[in-house]
Write a structure and sequence with these properties.
Elements lengths: L6 H18 L3 H7 L4 H9 L17 H13 L3 H11 L3 H6 L2 H12 L5 E4 L15 E5 L2 E12 L6 E7 L8 E7 L5 E6 L10 E12 L12 H8 L2 H25 L1 E2 L2 E2 L4 H29 L8 H26 L10 H11 L6 H13 L7
Parallel strand pairs: 1-4
Antiparallel strand pairs: 2-3, 3-7, 4-5, 6-7, 8-9
Helix pairs in contact: 1-3, 1-4, 4-5, 4-9, 4-10, 5-9, 9-10, 9-11, 9-12, 10-11, 11-12, 11-13
Bound molecules: flavin-adenine dinucleotide (FAD).
Length: 386
């Protein structure tokens, strides 16, 4: 077992760290307050070549693997969880194309995202299909050389400001292969951003309802040229689960550093808070939790980089996602507690971290769904302890 990072991992982590400190840290509070998409973050990521980390080199990506993406996300999420999501949003709407698309589709649909020329969004969730993905109602009907897509998607991260979307829709192919993925520019007639959500956290990345009203796309917009079935969204989500955990790890690290610095300065009962064992133990517990989660996340990234994100190993990605995201909620809460009354105030970043952390237990498979996957692995003996 080798825990050392490669030179490439270190370079990417250090680039992300620089952007985090120079661009993101000074702006994070303002981005949360205004809920305006931080184009300056995006441009800084583009300049630092951080937008195609997991994407193929042939089309302009770095092909540096999920470990590199996880490390970069951890760095930026220390200051702003929205920034972590922005990095994830180059891979989430493109991994389906990377896994199932033709070489021509990879060039046309992944290339511009990898090079930071356009922004993309991943459209799976619907009003009647969240955890229950199989209940998708969006339909695609063949009409000559075209497909006509009709349906509605909700809570789509980056959807309101995307240039390109990947949308999952059912076709009339026999189940379970009927599910297909289509990629289209958001300028296509019939595509509409119907509303933008007012949400609790992660306000830098807008989410919203997207409507597809008889949207016509050519046949070569269908990823792989035929329906890919449920394995399309499942492989995509599995391949990125650990990086949702990385957003949690980074957030928890940022919250812990902030609380520690405050505790060094704040005096009570004749000395700094750091002299109080109650505070020391909180900080120690936060570190224990972060270290455990970080190892699970890095292990998950390593599994994905070995191509091990199918049914035999998927539960370990769920373990990493569930533990790291729930850990970030506990740590953000304890960090607030260390600041006392100040922790509750908007003058400090901790109430923002706390609101942002709450998103992580819901997106890309809720904590409950991760537990159903882990329990199934135990019952089916993919996860064996004896
Ligand atoms: C801020 C934000 C950003 C998002 N971004 C995107 C995006 O970019 N693209 C996208 O496609 N989607 C996105 N989503 C959607 C997200 O993935 C779903 O919200 C999530 O999968 C849960 O679906 P749901 O909201 O319909 O909840 P439901 O599926 O209705 O679940 C409600 C509750 O029931 C529980 N539950 C449901 N089924 C089971 C079960 N079988 N066993 C145990 N418990 C269960 C859930 O865990 C949850 O607690 C986003 C959501 C949010 C809030």
């Amino acid at each position: 077992m080798d825990f050392a990072l490669s030179e490439e991992h270190t370079l990417i982590r250090d680039s992300a760290r620089r952007v985090a400190r120079e661009v993101i840290a000074p702006r994070a509070a303002e981005v949360d307050r205004t809920a305006e998409y931080p184009e300056d973050y995006f441009q800084a990521f583009k300049r630092a070549d951080l937008l195609g980390i997991t994407l193929p080199r042939e089309v302009g990506g770095a092909d540096a693997g999920l470990m590199s993406l996880g490390l970069a996300i951890e760095e930026v999420a220390k200051f702003d969880c929205s920034a972590g999501l922005m990095l994830l949003l180059s891979s989430l709407p493109t991994h389906t194309i990377k896994f199932f698309g033709t070489p021509d589709q990879q060039e046309r649909f992944i290339g511009p995202v990898a090079r930071g020329e356009i922004k993309a969004a991943f459209c799976l969730t619907e009003p009647d299909a969240g955890s229950d993905v199989a209940n998708l109602q969006t339909r695609a009907e063949r009409d000559g050389d075209e497909w006509v897509i009709t349906g509605q998607k909700q809570y789509i991260s980056g959807g309101p400001n995307a240039d390109q979307v990947i949308v999952f829709a059912k076709t009339d192919y026999p189940d379970p292969r009927s599910l297909a993925a289509f990629v289209l520019p958001t300028t296509t007639p019939g595509f509409e951003v119907t509303s933008i959500d007012r949400k609790m956290g992660v306000r830098g990345v807008p989410t919203g309802v997207l409507t597809f009203d008889r949207v016509r796309v050519p046949h070569d917009a269908m990823v792989g040229g035929e329906p890919i079935g449920m394995k399309g969204p499942l492989a995509t989500l599995n391949s990125l689960r650990p990086t949702v955990g990385a957003r949690g790890v980074g957030l928890a690290e940022g919250a812990t550093e902030y609380a520690l610095n405050y505790a060094r300065e704040r005096r009570a009962f004749g000395g700094p808070l750091t002299d109080l064992q109650a505070i020391q133990f909180k900080l120690a517990n936060m570190a224990i939790e972060i270290e455990a989660a970080r190892l699970l996340v890095l292990q998950g990234c390593w599994l994905v980089d070995q191509g091990r994100f199918g049914p035999a190993d998927g539960h370990m990605l769920s373990v990493a996602k569930a533990f790291a995201t729930e850990m970030s909620n506990r740590v953000a809460s304890e960090a607030i507690q260390i600041l006392g009354g100040q922790g509750y105030m908007e003058d400090h970043p901790l109430e923002r971290h706390y609101r942002d952390a709450r998103q992580l237990m819901i997106v890309e498979g809720t904590s409950e769904i991760q537990r159903t996957i882990i329990a199934r692995a135990l019952i089916d003996r993919h996860l064996v302890y004896a």
